[in-house]
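re: that chain from earlier
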Amino acid sequence: MAVSSSSPPVEATDGRGVNHDTMVAKETLISRSSSSGELSTIEKDPWSSEQVILVAENWKLTEKDTETLVTLGGRLRDISHPHNIPDQVIRYVKARSRSIDAAEKMFRNMIKWRLENKVDTILDDH
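^ sequence. v structure.
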């Protein structure tokens, strides 16, 4: 079956309708450090309002979902882990029908499991 040259290009999305190229471009713009060597927004605070807004746009969150994400982010401030970023945490909010308590428990259990099983250092350890 031949593909017509007039066919629109297929965009790579993640099932949520989020275009990966667009998402990567936005993240790159936000994470670029200035020429003065200052830390980027992501490096300073992954839970900054700019990051939360970006995630809300990418995931097409409602205002209530965004508020839930911000509340959960506040509860998770004690966890210093690369997965403790809005774009990861929102998955747990969605998985637990937007229950903040259930999402928090699930996220904390995931981090605990990753630490106990040394998932993040397995390549360095072997």
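The two ends are 48 Å apart (CA to CA).
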